Amino acid sequence: MTAFAGTGRLLRLALRRDRIRLAVWLAVMLIVWVAFVSELAVLADEGTLADRALILRSPAMIMMTGPGYGLDDYTLGVALVAETTLWVAAALAVLSILEVVRHTRAEEESGRAELLRAAPVGRHAPAAAALLLVVLVQAAIAAGSTAVIVGVGGVALPDTLALTGGLGLVGLVFAGVALAAAQLVEHARTATGLALAVFGAAFALRAIGDAQQSPATGSDETSWLSWLSPIAWVQQTRAFVDLRLWPLGLLVAAAAVALLAAFGLATRRDFGAGIVPSRPGHAHASILLASPLGLAWRAQRIGLMWTALGLGLVWLGSGTVMGSLGDLHDMLQRNPLYAAVLGSDLVNGFFALLVLLAALGATAWGIASIGRLRAEEASGRTEAVLATHVSRARWLGGQLALSAAGAAVLVMSAAALLWLGAEASGAEDLPGAGELLAFGAAFLPATAVALGLAAAAHAWLPRLAWLAWLPVLWGVVVGMFADLFDLPDAVRALSPFWWTPDPLTGTGAADDQVAAAPALWGLSAVAAALAALAFWGFRRRDVPA
């Protein structure tokens, strides 16, 4: 039996297990491309596309978008590379990391891989199957993205292939990184965190290097720091400007090195263990572990910290863009798309949109946090805890309290960082810090409604827990496109975030202080009712062993 025996069967099993998950990823990526390319095509037809290049020359936007090749001749293809490369690369890297860890280290940790290894399955077959799965998914996304970009945007096919192929190769590089991390440590969460930390370091190197030296800053060259990051190599192909393919070779070489290192590490470790052994725990438990809330905090504090750090940098950088809005005022106002999204008051409309996005991001973290309850049940840990003196109400209440508190911290810190970034940009006529913090706090009842729905879904129908994501998705649609599509109020009211009063622009269901209090109290009442429903349902249903 070879080390790769059974790879094909494991690949078919992985495809069957993840068919819905991967189909959603593919659909979302294609929808994003269709929406963005369509928007850019409209702007190109109106002759206002080149105005967008002005904002990309600021240091903050260089760090968030890239070096800025072709900003002097800002065509649709150049805009695609400049404004989407980093964020699509991030999404594909996260997809690869999650899939590889899910089908390798997580399977060993759960004990399922040991059962498979008792059959005629080679040592490296699970890792090889996971990598082939990632290759197929990245190829499908690249092919679909190419068809959308060329079909909708009408841009050159060779440059499009360089862009989409390069993005897929970035995903393969971090698939190799994730596989190597899975050999180093014993736990799936640690492996995922380690791989994401490597991605964060690569993103930071590129951001710092581009901000120091890039075409958008007036330099003819790129900083050597940027060349240390595989994320930058896609942009170095200079698609739609001066196409060159040799940077893609660097991505292929990096992926090969990462994969060889991962398989080399796999041959040197015991099954179920990691190269780096787990350190022994403390002899005595911390006082925090004496309660369900403390246990939830201990389990999620690292994730909350990294989420707050990553999103905080995004909001701080977004705030610095306010210094460039004055130069874009005329362009934004004469563009019907931006006028519908931002309204007549450009500064306040931009702040209102960012605070809404911050609230939606915090809500997404809270829903994902509550989603961990199902994993705790599936692993058997919930049953072990409930076998002690801990009641079901305390167990669920601790997780809900942590999720709500973490979401509140993310929202309020986002409002504060947006104000700090705007102040640092030197912009004038800005909302005050207190006003932004109050606006952020006004979103907390809507966030609580979404979290209450997530808890109720987990308590009554865990398999339908995905329904909790609908308020977030619909909140994006209503918050950004309701005026553009002229949606009626009855449709907008399906989003709890629409009911939040907006003191910056005076829009929403409650556009004055008289109507603001009833709206917030109503949202709070709905959130409390959903939480009560969650506690009732969790007491009534069986908890699996």
Q: Topology of this structure?
A:
Blueprint: H1 7-17, H2 19-46, H3 59-65, H4 76-103, H5 105-110, H6 112-117, H7 125-153, H8 157-184, H9 188-212, H10 224-227, H11 230-235, H12 246-266, H13 292-320, H14 325-334, H15 336-342, H16 346-379, H17 381-386, H18 392-424, H19 433-442, H20 444-460, H21 470-481, H22 489-492, H23 513-540
Main attributes of the structure:
single chain, about 550 residues, mainly alpha, 23 helices, about 70% helix, globular
Describe the structure.
The protein is mostly helical. The protein has a domain at 1-277. Helices cover 71% and strands 0% of the residues. The chain is built from 23 helices and no strands. It has helices at residues 7-17, 19-46, 59-65, 76-103, 105-110, 112-117, 125-153, 157-184, 188-212, 224-227, 230-235, 246-266, 292-320, 325-334, 336-342, 346-379, 381-386, 392-424, 433-442, 444-460, 470-481, 489-492, 513-540. Helix 20 (444-460) packs parallel to helix 23. The chain is globular, with a radius of gyration of 24 Å. It starts with 6 loop residues before the first helix and ends in a 5-residue tail after the last helix.
Largest sheet: none
String of helices and strands = HHHHHHHHHHHHHHHHHHHHHHH
Spatial gap, N to C terminus: 36 Å
Shape: globular
- Number of helical stretches of at least 4 residues: 23
Rg to the nearest angstrom?
A: 24 Å
Runs with pLDDT <50, length 5+?
509-514
Helix content: over 70%
Average pLDDT over all residues = 84
